[in-house]
Design goal:
125 residues; alpha+beta; Trna Endonuclease, Chain: A, domain 1; 5-stranded mixed β-sheet; two-stranded antiparallel ribbon; globular
């Protein structure tokens, strides 16, 4: 699958999860529901993947973890917040750079309509 197809399935899956469980729950609930939905649709989705930092030739274990990476291509960060500050988008971009991937989705489930909580972030290398 190409990136746009993968991201389309992720977005559709997030809409289904949001429709089923609604806003206002913990991020961990959405993560588990979305992971289930993605695997049910045949995508390889891995949760809570460590993100090391390499600085000055040294591997630094930072404790950062990606919420979900789909098909080793698309990073998905899940939030359940009233507002999405620019820092959350910058965090996804940093993850994209560290993992050397091109596309990330920031999904905020604490919205009335899920379409308002979807942010696409592209790493232009």
């Amino acid at each position: 699958m190409e990136l746009n197809q993968i991201s389309g399935v992720i977005v559709d899956s997030s809409l289904k999860v949001h429709s089923a469980v609604g806003p206002g729950l913990l991020e961990s609930v959405y993560l588990k529901c979305l992971h289930h939905e993605l695997t049910k649709r045949g995508l390889r989705a891995e949760c809570e993947i460590p993100v090391p930092v390499f600085y000055d030739g040294v591997h630094i274990d930072t404790g950062y973890r990606l919420d979900i990476i789909v098909e080793s291509e698309v990073i998905v960060e899940i939030r359940s917040v009233v507002e999405v500050p620019p820092l959350f988008k910058a965090q996804v971009l940093s993850y994209l750079r560290l993992k050397q991937t091109k596309l990330g989705l920031l999904l905020n489930f604490n919205v009335e309509h899920m379409k308002d909580g979807i942010f696409r972030i592209v790493n232009r290398f």
